[in-house]
Design brief:
Helix content is 11%, strand content 33%. It is mainly beta. The chain has a domain of 42 residues. Strands 1-2-3 form a 3-stranded antiparallel sheet, with no helix packed on it.
């Protein structure tokens, strides 16, 4: 997008409840207006994040080494 208008809805607790981004696409799009609406909630709650099993984990150095191989 070449330019974007961002609207935000703020709740009584001064946290963003919803945001909307509107703009026209640039390369690779039809030039039509694009709208992205996001709703925000769950502030202050602990996210339920679980790490992947050990067999699916890689150390950063291993990841970089594989990514830089020819």
């Amino acid at each position: 997008m070449t330019s974007v208008v961002i609207d935000m809805w703020i709740g009584r607790d001064v946290l963003v409840l919803q945001s909307q981004e509107t703009g026209k696409g640039a390369k690779g799009t039809t030039g039509k207006e694009q709208v992205l609406i996001e709703e925000h909630s769950g502030f202050g709650t602990v996210p339920a994040i679980t790490p992947p099993p050990g067999k699916d984990r890689r150390h950063r150095d291993e990841f970089i080494a594989r990514a830089t191989r020819p």
